[in-house]
Each structure stands twice: as structure tokens, then as C-alpha cells.
Amino acid sequence: MFVFGLTKRLPTSVSCISNTLRTGRVARYITQVTREKTFFIRKRELVKFKNAFSYDPELHVVLGPPSTGKTALIHEVTSKGDFNPLFINCRDGQFDTPRRIYNSISSQFEPFFKKYTRHFKKLLEQGEVSYTINDIQLKVKPFGVDPFNVREITSNDVTELFDNIGNALPNWTCWKGYDIPPPILVIDEANMFSQLGSSENGEVLLKSILNWMVVNTKEKGRFHIVLTSSDSFFFDWIVNLLHIPHATPYVVGDLSKEEAEEYFEEHVLPRFECKELEGKFDHVRKITGTSMLIIDRYVKEYKNCDGKLEDSKFSIYESEYNKLYRGLYYPEVLRYSYKTNPPLWKDYDLIKTMEAIVNAENQGYILQYDLMKEIGSKTS
């Protein structure tokens, strides 16, 4: 169960990605929960999300708590041959300086332009694009003769690169005539964009990048762009920068009870060889909820404890319990008495919150603003 600040409406199944604004389209998802790349596949839902990327280009923003499978979802949908995916992972700091932005974008688009050089020449001859991009145009030329004496890349270089890429790409519909999968740009953990806004020049560059995304999706219809983020306020942040709602938000939630039980029985237990837990999902769910990550971790800890894991000793349960305890009692009664800040909420605030969670069991979410009305902004 999670609290989201921008969700307007989700269907009864928690395991969904819901388009919360204009179109009303709904697509479920596929999630990756371990480094072994174990997928819980639901073909019908994959088709629905694939269709969302098959319409006219849009700027998609995929939101959700960490480890709910946002990245795995997008990779799975876009890597099946119907698209030419271009992936950028902002976790690696690829959008925090002009040089890294330039290198990240050029390294993704350069192979794409190389692969279809012959087709781009035809598009140029037919007037579908302004010009073609070659290797030289995707790199900043060094100053002087020394190949190691490369000048620093500036924001102007980045802006020029983005403009060149946009002008060299045709409208989305042109790819069908050549039987070529269209490009789709995927930027993971795009909330890292905010690192650019720490300086005046960086803020100007950031707005230029976002405007470029709008131009190439909504205005020119050249390709889809997908931004994923674990920050629930990321969408509001983008809209405030653009001043217009050109982005389409989706929220990735947990599994429904039925799906979580299937995942537990058919995928997790066989992997950890815990047959003794078969048929006990109702009990496990009281501890883990329907989060794939938490279910996975519970069974792993159960296995590591040779089947003797007490519910109260499950790491996530214990951590959350301690947070609640520290929030309810003054630091004087706790071990760390040097912390003098009083709790922000009372025991009846906890009761109201728990009641809201119980009432939202089949709804799958709690509106942050509704919770704030009940217990106040500081306590929520």
C-alpha cells in the first residue's frame, strides 16, 4: 500500500499502470524483482501497454515506488522488435553535466543513425528530413591538432545536438513505409534531471531539453519518449517547468491479491525451494502485502533462517514497526535520548491512518490530500 500525491483514479486491482489524465487508457505491467531477471509475465497487460506506445508519439511519465518494476516493464515492452529502444540510465549520473548529457544522447542515437544510413538518405531526398547526421556531427570537434586537447562541452553544444537530431528524424508514420521499428527514447530515474537546475545555466539547459521532448513528441510527432521515476512528485515538477500539461502520467502499483498469490506459489517458492510455505499465502500477505519485492525478501529471509523466521523479526516489518514506535513516543523513553524533537503525530493519527489503509484494501492507494485532511500536513 502506498500513498501517491497525484493519482486521481485507479481501478480496483492494485497491479496497474493508470493513465490519470486525459485518455483514460489503462495498462497493467510486468515486473522484475531480482537480479536474476525473474519476470512475472502477464501477456494481456503487455499488449495494452505496447498499444499505448503504438499511437501517436507522447511524452510518457511512468511513476511508482522503488522496485515495482518500472524499468523492467519498459525494457520488456520496447525490446521485442517493434521498437528501436534508446536507453539512458540517470542513476549513473548521465544528466548532471553538459558533457554527460551530450555523450549519453549521442551514444544512443549514433548507432541508430548508422544502422539506417541508406534509409535516411532516401528520407532526405524525399524531403521528409532536413538533413542527415554523420559521425562528425554527433561529436564535438577538438581544438588544435592534439586529439587529446578536447574543449569542454557547453550547453550550446547540447542544444545544437538536440536540434540536429530532431531535424534529422522524420515523422513517426514514415517508419511504417520502410518496415523499420521506430525509435523510442527511455530515460530511467529521470528525476535526476533536477541536478541540472542547481545553476542558472543548468536550469536554462534543463528547460531546453524538456521543450525539445515536447516538440519531438506532441508537436512534430517524431518518436515516443518515456521517463521513469520513483519520485511521486516528479510529474508535478515537470508540468511546473513546462507550464503546460504535455506529459502523460502512469502509476505503477503492487499486484492484486490473486496475482500476488500466483507469484508467491508459482514463482517464489520454487526458486527458494520452500514447499512448506505452499498454501500459506494468506498469512504471508498479512506481513508482506502484495509487493513483489517484499514477498521475495520475506521468503529469502525465511530460507536463510531455516524456516524459523518469526514474523516480528522480518527485516521490513521490524524496520516499519520501529519507525511507528519512534513516531509515537518521545525520545526520552527511547535509547537515543539526545534527540529532543517531539513526535509529529499522536496515537489517534496512527489509528486514522490504519483505518484508511484498511478501507483502501480493494482500491490499492490512498490519496495524499485526503490523508492530509484527516491528520494534517505535517503528520502525513
UniProtKB/TrEMBL annotation:
Pfam entry (one): ATPase_2
Highest rank taxon of the organism: Eukaryota
Entry-linked InterPro entries: Archaeal_ATPase_domain, ATPase_dom, P-loop_NTPase
Domain called ATPase: residue spans: 39-236
GO MF annotations, alphabetized: ATP binding
Protein known as: ATPase domain-containing protein
Organism the protein comes from: Gigaspora margarita
